[in-house]
Amino acid sequence: MAHAVEIRNLHKSFGALQVLKGIDFTVDPGQVVCVIGPSGSGKSTLLRCVNLLEEPTSGQVVVDGVELTHRDVDIDAARRRVGMVFQQFNLFPHMTALENVMIAQRRVLKRGRAEAERIAVENLEKVGVADKRDSYPAQLSGGQQQRVAIARALAMSPALMLFDEPTSALDPELVGDVLTVMRKLAEEGMTMLVVTHEMAFARDVADRVVFMDGGVIVEDGPAEQVIGAPRHERTKSFLRRVLDPTHTDV
Ligand SMILES: Nc1ncnc2c1ncn2[C@@H]1O[C@H](COP(=O)(O)OP(=O)(O)O)[C@@H](O)[C@H]1O
Ligand SMILES: [Mg+2]
User: Fold this and answer.
1) What is the pLDDT of residue 88?
2) In whole angstroms, what is the distance from residue 146 CA to residue 198 CA?
3) Distance 155 CA to ligand 1 centre (A)
4) Could you give the CA distance from residue 207 to residue 193 in angstroms, rounded to a whole number?
């Protein structure tokens, strides 16, 4: 079976700073892979290379059979296959939830108004905020805004969803609602690559966990093994720090 995502020997530098130093991994269709690791290890850069928000310095990124790093690729078409959810929700403040979920469908996919609205409502329902369709972002909680952002990404019918610390900007009591939505997506078979510090989510929902440190993958394995019985000292010490609430310097 073809991989949903295949990353081969990916390097990314910013000037003299080498951030990704040869990343290799794959995600199979329907798999959930969580990426964990300390701040500055290159997790966001990796995700941004997967949808070409950053141009890799070298190496290959293949999504759904299309090599995004090929020089002849239609970048806009390729990017449409990948949904991204950021820590900051990035909703348009002057648009309602419904309009936020419709705009890219209309502008990028050229869907008609009625179809875009139907798909928007479907996805707002899926994430549990259909009753907020006419609210503006400022009238929504962080958790509701993030769920609208997830609906916006889903409305584009992506082959793959990327999440970059989707719950890190949320008040603790709102984290669960967003994780519940992500868990449901995973159960429905969405292919997901998730950067997160939520170790319980990673352990319970991910098929695989990838631990990154210093621009390399230190450990990649089944979630219960990497989190429950890590093999490498760097993974162990990272997990000790994130699982011990008195250490917040991760
Ligand atoms: N656009 C950029 N220009 C220069 N340096 C960057 C840029 N983006 C990220 N970096 C640097 O790359 C390193 C990895 O960052 P990042 O991928 O955000 O790590 P993480 O998400 O794991 O915290 C950091 O040292 C960061 O400062
Ligand atoms: Mg990051």
Assistant:
1) 93
2) 16
3) 29
4) 10
pLDDT class of 250 with cuts at 50, 70, 90: very low
Q: How far is the CA of 215 from the centre of ligand 1 (A)?
A: 10
pLDDT tens figures, 194-225: 999 999 999 999 999 999 999 999 999 999 99
For ion ligand 2, residues whose CB falls within 5 Å: 43-44
Please name the amino acid found at residue 239: L
Shortest CA distance to 204 belongs to which of 194, 213, 214, 212? 194
Rounded CA-CA distance 96/228 in Å is: 43
Question: Is residue 138 lining ligand 1, measured as CB closer than 6 Å?
Answer: no
DSSP string for 104-146: HHHHTS---HHHHHHHHHHHHHHTT-GGGTT--GGGS-HHHHH
Which residue has the CA at smallest separation from atom 5 of ligand 1? Answer: 14
40 lines ligand 1 (CB under 6 A): yes
